[in-house]
Amino acid sequence: MAHARCCGLGALTSGTGSGTISSCVNITEVTTAAGWIAGLAIVALIATGWRKPARATADPARARRPLHAATGLEVAEVRAPLNRRSPWWRRLWSIVAGSILAVWVGAVTATIIGFGTAYAVITLTDMLKR
């Protein structure tokens, strides 16, 4: 029986023609790799925080007014009309349409998840039969 040397991801050992996959992963290597990935993710998050702000800061030179300009501007306060409440039939239609869409999206999602689960179970069962 020939035995392949263990690598980090697993090795294939073959006897008379059938093969089995054996895992040779060192827990220290996995922990070290996970630590590096977490550390690099933190560095990336910190690096994205050091960016130019989206909004410009106030320029004090633009805030200065010339000495000969008027000291203030006249501001007129105008009352805005209140927003009218939508009619009851429009609110009822919104509830009915939203409910129908929610049920439809739920049915489509459940169908996709069901078919995906069935496919996974059938595939794994076929793999076990081999």
Write up this protein.
- This protein is mainly alpha-helical and 130 residues long.
- It has a domain at 90-130.
- It is built from three helices and two strands; from the N terminus they run E-E-H-H-H.
- It has helices at residues 27-49, 60-63, 88-129; strands at 11-14, 19-22.
- It has a two-stranded antiparallel ribbon.
- Strand 1 (11-14) and strand 2 form a beta hairpin.
- Mean pLDDT is 75; it is low at 1-14.
Index terms:
130 residues; mainly alpha; two-stranded antiparallel sheet; 3 helices; flat; disordered N terminus
Order of helices and strands: EEHHH
Q: Indicate the overall shape.
A: flat
Q: Give the oligomer, counting copies of the same chain as homo and different chains as hetero.
A: single chain
C-alpha end-to-end distance: 21 Å
Low-confidence stretches: 1-14
Strand order of the largest sheet: 1-2
Largest sheet: 2 strands, antiparallel
Write the layout of secondary structure elements.
Elements: E1 11-14, E2 19-22, H1 27-49, H2 60-63, H3 88-129
Antiparallel strand pairs: 1-2
Q: Could you give a quick summary of the protein structure above?
A:
This protein is mainly alpha-helical and 130 residues long.
